[in-house]
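Narrative summary of target 7.
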Amino acid sequence: FAWPDLDIPQSIKQLESIGPYDASLVLRVHAGKIGISDLQLRAGSADLLAVSVRGDVADVKSLAGIKLDMEAGGREVAELSRLFGKPIPLQGSYALKISIHDRKAGAYRFDPFILALAEQQISGAIELDRSDATTRITTDLSAGEIDLTAMVPVLEEKIKPDVSGIEQAVDQQRVLPEWPVPPQLIRQLDADIRIRANRVMVADLDISDLSIKAGSQKNEIKLHAEARTVSYRGVLDEHAGSHQMGGVVLAASGRAAGDRMAIESFKLSGGSPETVFVLLQGSAADTIRQTGINLTFDIHGQEAGYLWQLLRADFRASGPFSLSGS
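Modeled conformation, tokenized:
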């Protein structure tokens, strides 16, 4: 199967069997355009991937005049690695339900967009506009309660003190994590991402009223994330139980220039002096080459036992504490 400007992954070319297939449609040719109407497609099974598509496409070649409803799902999302040839670090049953239509050639809206994973749901709308030289993506998604520990297998493992990551970072002369997005992609993409969740649970952390806004435009990126309260569950000695750390705010801005990614400002603040308060801020001239880095930090509280709980440390301390530096 081939289509202009469509790159099919090699793993899909190997034709992994997904199960039975049944399709019907009406093919129309008008004024040199090939269109599809009354499409009814069912393929696969829940053992790997079951897909159902119905609707119309006025012009197949230019993908214009799209009105499609699609549903897809399976019993185990990790099994999709058989299709894509790469490990998928998720687990649980999954289901996707979307309606797709185009506002104009190259501009598509997915509304509603409903994704359920491990019996948890996120929904909203997504717009993808490729009608101009710069691709623009806009999302507005929300969720009720999300337990990431149930979705991501590695989070189920008990976190133990491990300095190997620090040792590796020192060996590689790295202070910051590797930048996840190539600067070239940022220059080609305008984005407006909005995500909200009433509650997010990650291992021992419990985050309420989380909102995330991220955007990129003309080489610049901005991120703002805020949570009303963050609590963590202590499991050691007299500090066992749930402890509220207060609100948390993360704000960052940066710029892509050539093959460099600069963080012009970064600030993470949150917690409570009664438990643990954290302030981390700074900048980096180039996060990829790890140069021009300036970071300052301030961590303090009234009872050190809460900090050791949060870090799951093997040693004990008590009383007021303060740690700051740059």
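The mean pLDDT is 83.
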